[in-house]
Design goal:
By secondary structure, the protein is of the alpha+beta class. It has 24 helices and 28 strands. The chain has 3 domains: 239 residues, CHASE domain (Beta-Lactamase); 162 residues, Alpha-Beta Plaits, CATH 3.30.70; 241 residues, TIM Barrel (Alpha-Beta Barrel), CATH 3.20.20.450. The chain has an 8-stranded mixed beta barrel with strand order 19-20-22-23-24-25-26-27, surrounded by 5 helices. Bound molecules: ligand C2E and magnesium ion (2 copies). Its main location: membrane. Pfam families: CHASE, EAL, GGDEF.
């Protein structure tokens, strides 16, 4: 059984669709993750901005608070205010009050009392012109008195900037600034500094510089606490790093990836302004498309498509199996003939082509035999088709049993079988002769079918590869021609195809085609050959002979085309044409006043076998008002052998009409003389092969003499045809032959020249004289 690959294709197609869908979904997920990353980054930036804005707002509120209270803010006041502000967690506030050196001592005394700390003093030590000691603190109380104008203060720069610019200043990340001790070595503290300037009216009493600078309000916080403030609302899936990029070299504040790679292009960058400083925030998603089940839809799609592909492929395979098994069943029916069980015509032709291929390769000869049963139709007609079919089946079984195992046998249909035999030896004709003879002998032995004993013969035609055909069609066609030839040779025999046969066959086919055409158009004519009384030498009749001049084939003799017309059935319309034409000429001559002796028309067996032959003849006689006595019909003796009984009756009826009958070409056929006695013939026409060498060949002379005597004894007139010279004429006259026909007297004449032919002229003159008498 054959398979096709459809199910593989279906599987591959759906599977690839699945892969496509999965990839598309992965891309979709990736796009989603990317957009999510961007959104989360932007959100984080906003939150950081908000937090820092809140810090600066808180700081400026504190500065405004001190300013509005004209610098008179107590520790408790300050703490309450800070508390009320609900400062962001992790942020510490301070106020460093301006102090010129001359007020240092007074300040220290005052603070010692206020803080209940007798050891209070401004630190770090050292005399400076101005001091900015931390005076108010919230919530971190430790660094009271730390002077942020001391050179040790790590954010001195911001102090100067805030003081000079009257604006908020931010530090770069620094370690905790109010101690020399590096409690926390990490530089992760940011200080926001805002200057406090008092209004003019309050400066007199307060500690200010000449322009009213009263101190610095600061807020410091740890980067981590800032992130703790912001990060809870930020997805843990977001990686980030923050840098102060105010200077040329970025100073990194934090990196949530803890040192993992930040590949160029796979993160988002955002910028923040923190007072005078610029921060950069890089964000990227910690989640790839391969994590957190983002791949799940893609995998699901892949699995679903794979399942569909398996199902469809399985289903397609099932369908294709059903289809191919059905196809095999049909093929088997096509390949094997149901009736005989042999290879069908189609299949054996196919096998023949294959064998030709093998023979070509192995340099072998192949014999193609067509075995055709003789007279199978008779069996069918006599016993019915059922018996006929059973006989065919028996013949095929016998063929299988008698032929060698390597022979290929097929049934061509009808009553024909094809046998293929491979032969090693090219020249081994004798072995084929033996096979064919043996086949004919064994196939012709009796069959017992349904209680009947049936006998049937067969004819065989052989065509050999490569000599006479290199493909199946040609070999079968040639074997067919050969079997036809075998049948023509008398059946129950075999015949080898040869090239000549093919050429003849081709010409015959051409003649048949052209003849059919000639019947429709023109090219056919009737000529008339006079028959002469050998005693009086008067014309006693004419024989109508067909003449055909074809545009392509030229002049074709009736001796060639009549047998073809008989084999192909063209003889029937052709015969009708001849009769109609002959009657028309008789009528024309009558009208022209030309007396023409009786016209003999040649009639083939097939014409006489027609059931409507007599009715047609009668209607023509009636149509042209012709006297039947002016008509003669010539038939060959073969017809009488084929179908003597029914033919005899017809001939009697024709004779009764007054139409005279001649037996043509006497002596060439079976020469059964019995019909001469029983049938109503008037003439016997001795075949021209006897006349041709009657003078030279004593045997032919003796035969001719005998036929003349026989004819006379049976009361028949004897006609000799083909008399070409005077010696033949004299001899025939001596034998007592009645009538002669031949070129010695006249060739066949055209219908128009009949009136001027001397023999016809003489006949008309004689006729005139007879009438006068
Ligand atoms: P056939 O009926 O025996 O006709 C006599 C043949 O001998 C004619 O040949 C004729 O031309 C030829 N013949 C006559 N005198 C001589 C002679 O002195 N020497 C030689 N060598 N031949 C002579 P054709 O016309 O070629 O006809 C051949 C055959 O064709 C006829 O033989 C006849 O059997 C058949 N035929 C011709 N016309 C018709 C027709 O109309 N119907 C039928 N059914 N057969 C026809
Ligand atoms: Mg004749
Ligand atoms: Mg003849």
């Amino acid at each position: 059984m054959k398979f096709n690959k459809a199910h593989y294709l279906v599987f591959c197609f759906v599977f690839l669709c699945g892969i496509g869908a999965s990839v598309a979904l992965l891309f979709e997920e990736r796009a989603y993750v990317d957009s999510n990353q961007k959104a989360m980054g932007a959100d984080f930036t906003d939150k950081l901005n908000d937090a820092l804005r809140q810090y600066t707002l808180e700081l400026t509120s504190v500065a405004a608070f001190i300013q509005s209270n004209k610098g008179e803010v107590s520790e408790s006041h300050f703490s309450r205010f800070a508390q009320n502000l609900m400062m962001s967690p992790g942020v510490s506030l301070f106020f460093a009050q301006y102090l010129p050196i001359d007020k240092k001592h007074e300040y220290q005394l005052q603070q010692r009392v206020l803080l209940s700390n007798p050891n209070f003093k401004i630190f770090p030590d050292g005399d400076r012109e101005e001091y900015l000691p931390l005076t108010l603190l919230y919530p971190d109380k430790i660094p009271y008195g730390y002077d942020i104008l001391s050179s040790q203060y790590r954010d001195l720069e911001s102090v100067y900037l805030a003081r000079s610019s009257y604006a908020l200043a931010a530090s770069m990340p620094i370690a905790l600034p109010f101690s020399n001790v590096m409690r926390n070595k990490q530089a992760d503290t940011i200080i926001l500094s805002a200057p406090v300037y008092l209004p003019l009216d309050s400066r007199v009493y307060k500690l200010t510089d000449s322009v009213g600078f009263h101190g610095i309000v600061g807020a410091y916080f740890n980067v981590n606490s800032l992130l703790n403030f912001v990060a809870p609302s930020v997805s843990g899936d977001l990686f980030y790093r923050i840098a102060d990029v105010s200077s040329d070299e970025p100073v990194w504040l934090v990196d949530s990836t803890r040192g993992a790679a930040w590949d160029e292009g796979n993160y988002e960058t955002h910028y923040l302004s923190v007072a005078n400083r610029q921060w950069r925030l890089d964000t990227r998603h910690s989640v790839s498309v391969w994590s957190r089940g983002h791949w799940l839809p893609a995998i699901l799609a892949f699995l679903v498509f794979t399942a569909i592909a398996c199902f469809l492929s399985f289903y397609t395979r099932k369908l294709s199996l059903t289809y191919f098994s059905a196809l095999d069943a049909v093929n088997e029916r096509i390949e094997v003939d149901e009736l005989t069980g042999l290879s069908s015509r189609y299949h054996i032709q196919h096998t023949l082509n294959e064998l030709i291929g093998c023979c070509e390769k192995d340099d072998k000869q192949l014999a193609t035999l067509i075995l055709d049963l003789d007279h199978f139709k008779t069996i069918n007609d006599a016993f019915g088709h059922e018996i006929g079919d059973k006989l065919l089946s028996s013949v095929s079984k016998r063929l299988l049993s008698i032929l060698p195992d390597d022979a290929v046998i097929g049934y061509l249909g009808g009553d024909a079988f094809l046998v293929l035999l491979m032969q090693d030896d090219y020249q081994d004709r004798p072995s084929l002769d033996i096979v064919a003879t043996d086949l004919i002998k064994k196939i012709s032995q009796s069959y017992f079918v349904e209680g009947l004993t049936l006998n049937i013969g067969c004819s065989i035609g052989l065509a050999l590869y490569p000599e006479f055909g290199k493909d199946a069609v040609t070999l079968i066609k040639n074997a067919d021609m050969a079997v036809y030839q075998a049948k023509t040779l008398g059946r129950a025999t075999y015949h080898f195809y040869d090239g000549e046969m093919g050429r003849r066959f081709a010409r015959n086919v051409r003649i048949e085609t052209r003849l059919r055409k000639a019947l429709q158009t023109e090219g056919l004519e009737l000529h008339f050959q006079p028959k002469v009384d050998l005693i009086t030498e008067r014309c006693v009749g004419v024989e109508a002979l067909l003449r055909w001049e074809d545009k392509e084939l030229g002049a074709v003799s009736p001796a060639e085309f009549i047998p073809i017309a008989e084999q192909t059935g063209v003889i029937l319309p052709l015969g009708d044409w001849v009769f109609e034409q002959a009657f028309r000429h008789i009528k024309e001559w009558e009208e022209q006043g030309i007396t023409v002796p009786p016209i003999a028309i040649n009639c083939s067996a097939a014409q006489l076998k027609r059931v409507d032959f007599l009715p047609n003849l009668l209607s023509l006689l009636d149509k042209y008002k012709i006297d039947p006595s002016s008509l003669e019909i010539e038939v060959t003796e073969s017809i009488l052998i084929e179908d003597a009984e029914s033919c005899a009756e017809l001939l009697r009826q024709i004779s009764r009409l007054g139409v005279k009958l001649a037996i043509d070409d006497f002596g060439t056929g079976y020469s059964s003389l019995s019909y001469l006695k029983d049938l109503p013939f008037h003439y016997v026409k001795i075949d021209q092969v006897f006349i041709r060498d009657i003078v030279e060949d004593r045997k032919h002379a003796a035969l001719t003499h005998a036929i003349v005597s026989l004819g006379h004894n049976l009361n028949l007139k004897v006609i000799a045809e083909g008399i070409t010279n005077i010696d033949q004429l004299i001899m025939l006259q001596e034998f007592g032959c009645d009538i002669g026909q031949g070129y010695l007297f006249s060739k066949a004449l055209g219908a128009n020249t009949m009136g001027s032919d001397p023999m016809i002229v003489a006949l008309n003159e004689q006729e005139g004289l007879d009438k006068q008498e």
